[in-house]
Design goal:
alpha+beta, Helix Hairpins, HSP40/DNAj peptide-binding domain, 3-stranded mixed beta sheet, elongated
Length: 389
Amino acid sequence: MSTDYYEVLGVPRDATGDQIKKAYRKLAMRYHPDVSDTEDSAEKFKQIGEAYEVLQDPNKRAVYDRGGDPLGGGFSAGGGFGGFSAGGFDFTNLVDAMFGQTTRRGPRSRVQKGQDSLAKLDLTLAEAAFGVTKPLKVTLAVVCQRCNGKGSADGADPVACPTCHGQGEVVQIQRSFLGDIRTSAPCPACHGFGNVIQNPCPECSGEGRVRGSRTINVKIPPGVSSGNRIHLDSQGEVGLGGGPAGDLYVELRVARHDIFTRDGDNLELVINVPMTAAALGTELTLDTLEADRDDLPDADKTVKVAIPPGTQSGTRVVVPDKGVPKLRGRGRGSLAVTVAVATPTGLDEEQRELLRTLAKLRDEERLEASVATARGKGGFFDRLKEAFS
């Protein structure tokens, strides 16, 4: 025989059974493939198990001491190392010995906290800018009113599961070349709770919760934008067994406005001004975003904007503090008014003649086309592009 089992375990040839077992346990914990990072740990672990297989069995040890083959060419029909047998050392004990704890999970509570939920809420631009308290209807898990969350039709407490005897898990033993390997899994009878409800509530089937709709008033602060979320504590799904509710997150979606375009805390507005008004200058009264509110007097819903004489298309007039209130901080953004000069159409003969006279006085009867500079000075489309960039 090429392998000296006594040398493998590091024990004398007259070692007792306790000495052999102690040596095996020490070496098994040292060379187990899941613990050791040496390249030959698997082979050494196999030799250690084979040595223990032989030396812990008096009959096999006697055959080995006489020079015979105690294994008959391989492992015994019992499958696995003797150190993993019922009378020796199993894999669970190995884990417990290494980490000082058991791998059992135990039963889980029937009362559990509910999951967080996400809902979406649509807002107008004015509601997002100035804030609002808005109702939101949500469909979530709520406490079952029939059993008040207990899950039992008659209000009785759950009883210990007869399958796992209250442990919440069952242990299975599998035979392998490593010996008896114990694995645990949630009990299929009680689903890991360790107890069963003998008379489940017909409304919630023993869960203590049902699907239901309710309306929540959500307070929206001024200055929110699309994608912002409002966090409502304990307004989400009720947990199993009527457990505490999770949190509710409300994601905001702000609709596009027919007139105003939002750019951060600023508002953009394009107005059409007749050619004569742009040339002569004027003052306009414009509606602000406050015009969408019903709680303000009319005087607070408008602003006066001066159009200087000679205003060109694309000119941008900025009105401070008429934009969106800042979500974090004080003050408001600005309202930027971009002027688009409207060229008159459908002129009658008298109007045409007046324009001809004006053109003659300004020496503009025969003009040569002029190209705007690269920076767009004087060009309507360039100035309009700059206004919105």
